[in-house]
């Protein structure tokens, strides 16, 4: 089957395999001249398909694929958490939810199935298909013109990289409607084509944009260029403190099962050195008062600098190797914990993946990651954080890689920490590798900008229509088609109570919630709701609704007679024995004989409510945090 890409080149899929071959671990498997399926279920194998259309089934990234130019139309079916297409392989299929895939220099077809995946075409003019669930599509200027065949406005995300589009206004100016397709100009003659998407239905929520390198409207509040190092164990009278806590002088975190002693010249080994404006934090085996295997370095501004909100950035080159664990993070200036914001962490065993976390008292730890990055141990990269009262965004090399609502306990000044930890047995990065004894974290600069703070919000604002939006700190947009509108409360100063029955009878309402506990009631028309970080409640109505709960412990209410075909919950968090964030499906107006029936699906599950002869339309629920179907801990029949 041929598929046209953005420059009208027909891309082909592979022929069905005629022979199935399996490689044992540590072996090399050669295919035939025909259409083969080559699998390496235990990894660490070399697969070479030869001529013909070959299909490679990969279970982890440890296996190697060898293909030659003009060797047929080849496809990788990847069950790995992240996979980059090797040279001369045309197509990639992502088989697992939560996985990531990147193409090569060819014109690739990349497809995903149920759940949430990240698709990056790489170079070439590629065709990307996300399937069901909330997917992220990466479009990088300089990598050709790609097509997204099934973009879902309000659900999927487009992560724009290296394009001079720093605001949604700039994105809108670069959009063109060509027939049923929307075309986004990336500059340099490259474009992104969204098949069968109306430009008027796109919103800021659909895009993750690069950071403005000028930081317009912000002022520099901290700049360390490391021409010299002002540091001491107490932090009194110096820029940096070389020990943990504000008033204490702790030199390791044993609770993390770490193997390093944070040293400085005052206690023997000095892990810090500066050359040509570059700070070198060195982790190496060495004696120390705690008898730990390594000495390493930590720098904090616990006694010199703290800030609430703003943009924080470090430029660094990170060490590769099992056990090395570099990080740049924030802790509260009042000495409490949590909260904690991790601007980045990297595990030396995989220097192409970075992690971004929030530790909060309002819910479980939230950790996001970005895979298939450039090797962070080879050359310098920037790691940035845009911390605002309502939203936190993470950046690598100026490109947004993750975002989250700002938890309520992260509305206070925090200080910075920069460190190179070393893992011991049982730690997250794994025990250090004695064959790679020394790690170097090289730091070019640390800089901070600030635009100001926001006053504390009132408790609740009732919204009955567009006239109430501005007073709540939100914005209202009537789409150009006149048939849909957007209520944006992402910067609202209060929780929102909104009832669509009191609003204009537009067929489609889109509501973006606040970071607090909102209550939203759908009506007779379509209403799509993206909740914030609070404990929100959403009442489904007679019209179809797609709801994304976001953070917090959310309640989704379905009422007998008001369940519509196509109702969908995007990210339901099940109740787990270990605790953490959990949502609730509440079923109102049913008899004592009613029950919830599971019909199909794994991550994207289908349910109906059966009450005597009444059978509800199918309700689709995407499970965000665990395998298995809903249990009685996840739903409640409210029979009162």
UniProtKB/TrEMBL annotation:
Residues 205-454 form the GH16 domain. One of its GO terms (molecular function) is hydrolase activity, hydrolyzing O-glycosyl compounds. InterPro entries: Beta-glucanase-like (IPR000757), ConA-like_dom_sf (IPR013320), Glycosyl_Hydrlase_16 (IPR050546), Hemolysn_Ca-bd (IPR001343), Serralysin-like_metalloprot_C (IPR011049). The keyword Hydrolase applies. Pfam families: Glyco_hydro_16, HemolysinCabind. One of its GO terms (biological process) is carbohydrate metabolic process. PANTHER family: GLYCOSIDE HYDROLASE FAMILY 16 PROTEIN, GLYCOSYL HYDROLASE-RELATED. Belongs to the glycosyl hydrolase 16 family. This is Glycosyl hydrolase family protein. It comes from Dankookia rubra. The lineage of its organism: Bacteria, Pseudomonadati, Pseudomonadota, Alphaproteobacteria, Acetobacterales.
């Amino acid at each position: 089957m041929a598929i046209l890409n953005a420059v009208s080149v027909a891309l082909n899929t592979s022929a069905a395999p005629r022979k199935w071959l399996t490689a044992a671990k540590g072996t090399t498997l050669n295919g035939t001249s025909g259409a083969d399926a080559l699998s390496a279920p235990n990894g660490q194998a070399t697969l070479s398909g030869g001529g013909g259309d070959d299909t490679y089934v990969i279970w982890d990234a440890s296996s190697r694929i060898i293909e030659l130019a003009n060797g047929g139309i080849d496809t990788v079916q990847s069950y790995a958490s992240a996979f980059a297409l090797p040279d001369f392989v045309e197509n990639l299929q992502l088989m697992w939810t939560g996985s990531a895939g990147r193409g090569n220099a060819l014109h690739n077809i990349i497809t995903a199935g149920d759940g949430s995946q990240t698709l990056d075409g790489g170079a070439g003019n590629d065709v990307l298909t996300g399937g069901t669930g909330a997917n992220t599509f990466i479009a990088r200027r300089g990598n050709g013109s790609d097509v997204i065949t099934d973009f879902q406005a309000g659900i999927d995300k487009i992560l724009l990289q290296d394009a001079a589009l720093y605001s949604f206004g700039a994105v809108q100016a670069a959009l063109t409607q060509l027939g049923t397709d929307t075309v986004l100009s990336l500059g340099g003659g490259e474009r992104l084509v969204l098949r069968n998407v109306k430009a008027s239905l796109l919103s800021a929520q659909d895009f993750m944009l690069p950071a403005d390198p000028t930081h317009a409207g912000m002022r520099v509040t901290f700049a360390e260029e490391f021409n010299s190092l002002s540091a001491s164990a107490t932090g009194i009278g110096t820029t940096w403190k070389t020990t943990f806590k504000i008033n204490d002088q702790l030199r390791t975190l044993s609770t993390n099962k770490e193997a390093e002693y944070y040293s400085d010249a005052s206690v023997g080994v000095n892990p810090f050195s500066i050359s040509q404006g570059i700070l070198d934090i060195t982790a190496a085996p060495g004696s120390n008062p705690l008898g730990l295997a390594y000495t390493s370095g930590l720098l904090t501004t616990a006694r010199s600098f703290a800030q609430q909100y703003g943009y924080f950035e470090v430029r660094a080159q990170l060490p590769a190797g099992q056990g090395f664990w570099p990080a740049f993070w924030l802790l509260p200036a009042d000495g409490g914990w949590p909260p904690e914001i991790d601007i980045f962490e990297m595990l030396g065993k995989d220097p192409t993946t970075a992690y971004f976390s929030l530790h909060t008292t309002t819910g479980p730890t939230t950790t996001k990651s970005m895979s298939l990055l450039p090797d962070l141990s080879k050359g310098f990269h920037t790691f940035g954080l845009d911390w605002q009262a309502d939203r936190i965004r993470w950046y690598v090399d100026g490109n947004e890689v993750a975002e989250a609502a700002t938890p309520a306990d992260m509305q206070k000044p925090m200080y910075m920490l920069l460190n190179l930890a070393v893992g011991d047995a049982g730690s997250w990065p794994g025990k250090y590798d004695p064959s790679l004894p020394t790690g170097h974290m090289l730091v070019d600069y640390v800089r901070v900008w600030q635009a100001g703070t926001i006053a504390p919000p009132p408790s609740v604002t009732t919204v009955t229509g567009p006239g109430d939006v501005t007073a709540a700190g939100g914005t209202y947009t009537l789409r150009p088609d006149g048939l849909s509108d957007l209520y944006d409360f992402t910067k609202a100063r209060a929780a929102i109570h909104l009832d669509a029955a009191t609003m204009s009878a537009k067929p489609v309402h889109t509501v973006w919630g606040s970071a607090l506990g909102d209550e939203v009631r759908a009506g007779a028309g379509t209403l799509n709701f993206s909740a914030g970080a609070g404990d929100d409640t959403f009442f489904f109505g007679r019209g179809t609704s797609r709801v994304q709960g976001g953070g917090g412990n959310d309640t989704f209410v379905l009422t007998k007679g008001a369940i519509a075909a196509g109702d969908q919950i995007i990210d339901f968090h099940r109740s787990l024995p270990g605790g953490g964030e959990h949502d609730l499906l509440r079923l109102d107006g049913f008899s004592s004989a009613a029950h919830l029936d599971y019909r199909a699906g794994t991550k994207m599950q289908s349910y109906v409510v059966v009450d005597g002869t009444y059978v509800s339309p199918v309700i689709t629920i995407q499970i965000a945090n665990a395998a298995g179907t809903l249990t009685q801990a996840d739903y409640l029949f409210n029979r009162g």
